[in-house]
Amino acid sequence: MAKPFTCIFSFFATLIFLPLLPIYAQSSGKIAVGQSLSAATNASPWLSPSGDFAFGFHQLPTNSNLFLLAIWYAKIPDTIVWYANDGNPVREGSKVTLTADKGLVLSDPQASSLLWSTSDDFSNGNGVSYGFMSDTGNLVLKNSSSNDPVWQSFNHPTDTLLPTQIMEINGVVNSRLSENNFRKGRFQLRLIPNGNLVLNTRDRASGYNYGAYYISGTNERPNTGHRLIYNESGYMYVLRTDGSTYDLLPQNKTNPTKSYYQRATLNFDGVLMWYSIPKTSISNGWSMDQALPDNVCTSIGASGPQLGSGICGFNSICVLGDDKRPTCKCPPGYSLLDSNDTYGSCKPDFKADGCVEYAQRSMKNEYRLERLPSTNWPFSDYEKLGPYNEDDCKMSCLTDCFCAAVAFQDSNSPICWKKKAPLSYGRQDTKVRETTWIKVGNVNFSNDPLNTFVPLFPPKAKNKVKSLDKFLLGGSVFVNLVLLSAISLGIFLIYHKKPLKEFEEGQRKKLREYNSNVHCFSYQELTDATKGFTEELGRGAFGVVYRGMISTVGPPICVAVKKLDRISHDADKEFRTEVNGIGQTHHRNLVRLVGFCKEGDQRLLVYEYMSNGTLANYLFGELRPSWVARIQITLGIARGLLYLHEECSTQIIHCDIKPQNILLDDNHNARIADFGLAKLLVLNQTHTNTAIRGTKGYVAPEWFRNKPVTVKVDVYSFGVLLLEIICCRRSVCMEFIEEEGAILTDWAFDCYQSNTLDSLVNNDMEALNDWQRLKRFFMVSLWCIQEDPSLRPTMKMVMQMLEGLAEVPKPPCPTMLSITTTNTKPLG
Ligand SMILES: *[C@@H]1O[C@H](CO)[C@@H](O)[C@H](O)[C@H]1NC(C)=O
Ligand SMILES: *[C@@H]1O[C@H](CO)[C@@H](O)[C@H](O)[C@H]1NC(C)=O
Ligand SMILES: *[C@@H]1O[C@H](CO)[C@@H](O)[C@H](O)[C@H]1NC(C)=O
Ligand SMILES: *[C@@H]1O[C@H](CO)[C@@H](O)[C@H](O)[C@H]1NC(C)=O
Ligand SMILES: *[C@@H]1O[C@H](CO)[C@@H](O)[C@H](O)[C@H]1NC(C)=O
Known about the structure:
Number of domains: 5
CATH topology of the largest domain: Transferase(Phosphotransferase), domain 1
Bound molecules: 2-acetamido-2-deoxy-beta-D-glucopyranose
Strand content: 25-35%
Structural class: alpha+beta
Largest sheet: 6 strands, mixed
Helix content: 10-25%
CATH class of the largest domain: Mainly Alpha
Shape: elongated
Number of strands: 44
């Protein structure tokens, strides 16, 4: 009766069952060819010389008829560190034999079949002479005429790494499926070819890797990471090509390996945990030294939306325990899809079959909302409503058959996110600012006799013992968790007094780098892509832009490669950060950054190619674009700016809005280019107005007045641009320099006051026929070019006024406050 519990009750077992552990005989660790072991209860394993490690058949704690071919700590109960046969257990009587030509061979005598072997063929003049179970936990197969092992378990890690173990590029550690199921689980630790050590989730069926939830950040070329080393002192680090190291353990704490057993295990719940135990008092059980990531529930998805369900299953909520390990819980009205898989998905207990007769059902108060504080499923949104109050937010979900939950964030302008099923990446954490309301049916569909899928009651209790067993098992896991929590709470109070805030911030940054689609190109790749920088597309404030074709990161795409030539020294340090910031912006009215190159002195940015050139060419070319097209372009630019100012994660002030920086894609949609680069632009020493980042004619007056630069500088430039779009002419026209109308911004207000708008638009009948809109656009532009920044509207207000959703008041004279008008005259 005690056996099934020893493994589950690792902590308890050490206290209670310790005397029952077999005391193995001394061993040389050497295994001769021809020696074999059979799977049986109480069969003795092959031991390392010190007796610390054992190799053999380990009886499964959950089923005493099944055995796992494994390596384990012989003196510590139930600490399996390596397993063969992909974690599949074998029947009693199965046999492992050391052979010269195939190494270790696992076979099932009853079926007389070979189940697993270390190799299909060692016989190419390099067979096995003997095996050796070492004191480091490494099982080594050797040919006596060579020093290098023919095979070693350290090169084929399962879910655990041990001191002295090294993992090369492409090395993988896979979590188990659950505490007692050793098949490959949903989490991986990998050293990927770019030099980063990552933790990621994977799809179990296909093996597809989802986004990472930890990144070491050791991919800076040329000193990329190339090995993960767990050295014999118990330090774990990524070794870079220049010999420098990136430490994973310790963050202060390493116990000497002489007096402590140590291991790093990727737990089945996705947390990489370093454990230690004093050799002299193993009865206290393993203590947890450090967890990676620090908060697995919030680290996952820190870089943005991803596929998969997250740490827990779909519709489930990840809650971090005091032991830094997650538990998963179903929201109210939901229960586990597989009652045995507590980390799995949750199914609704109510009828959630979409929109069939939804109106009637919701009328009958069939649904209600349950409040979940500090909880969110951040990647299940399908609508964002705001500003919106909490009641409206809830009501909009209750009356919407697509809505599974709403998250509400209270602030000055409260926002409401509607979420669709299945909900993914759920987490409950004090850091989560949203309150989520989940929609729950009032009728327990699981109890509905018409529902044939979920039985009303469990099938007739076949035998009471079994269900009692189940109960006990469940209970013990619970007790175990509570105990572990208690122990680890203690540990973490000692070692993690401060939340590792900086560490987390750095992590989030790195994650963004890895998961954003911004690719790091080599200079050679870009030289090839642009055929040696031959086809010039244009020259701008930052350098020359070339056309190129990239095929290294997916299907071939046409790109514009911008060679930056004026990066200031200080800005260069920020280059990566800025580039990653830019890479995070995704909007249909922004030109997408595909990648970058930072090599030696070279700084290049790779953008998607815009086939229809700049707005300047379109607007000031021979043919006047249609009024309708100009309206669309105006709204597109406004949307793009609104996104940069208010909707992306960090506010971006463009500082150089002008028609040369607006590009047109295949469908003549406006796309803003060069955003986020203002910070990188070095002061231009050759011009007189050194501090101005921007282009004459579009630059807001505050640049000249040492006033703080805010988003309103973009609003000003947008106003000038809007005038140009309305009139199809440049804001500063040198040909008319002595005439009335040389400076569009001045002339515009004159026209407005004298009511001669038609002369301004040069008798554009199309526009004049759309008089209300024309006037509205015109007035908005006059608001935008107000000299006093505080008078200018925000882009949000601009958007509302352009769309006719808000009234446009009568604009004052833009230069009312100015002392002189130098700032609106052509500069230089
Ligand atoms: C060990 O390797 C040598 C050649 O490298 C080979 O001749 C010998 O047969 C191998 N020993 C065994 C036991 O296979
Ligand atoms: C293990 O790594 C640590 C940190 O890099 C170093 O201080 C220590 O000397 C190393 N131990 C051995 C045995 O190499
Ligand atoms: C680690 O050690 C440094 C000083 O060596 C100390 O300032 C820091 O608080 C320690 N961190 C933790 C988590 O104990
Ligand atoms: C619905 O009924 C099932 C089966 O009786 C039960 O397991 C579940 O907890 C119930 N759900 C709710 C929300 O009452
Ligand atoms: C849960 O596990 C038990 C024993 O492992 C098994 O008999 C039962 O069928 C499982 N239940 C489900 C729903 O898979």
